[in-house]
Amino acid sequence: MKRLVVLLPVLNEAEGLRWVLERIPYASLEAEGYETEVLVIDGNSTDQTEDVAAAFEARFLPQEGTGKGSAIRYGFREALAMGSEVVVMLDADGTYAPEEMLRLLKPLKQDGVVIGDRLRGEMAPHSMSRLNYIGNHLLTWLASGLYGTATHDVCSGYWAFSRDAIERMMLNSVSFEIEAEMYASMVHRGIAFTYRPISYRPRLGEAKLGSTADGWNILRKLITRRFLPQPLL
Question: What domains, with CATH codes, occur in the chain?
Answer without folding.
Answer: 2-227 (3.90.550.10)
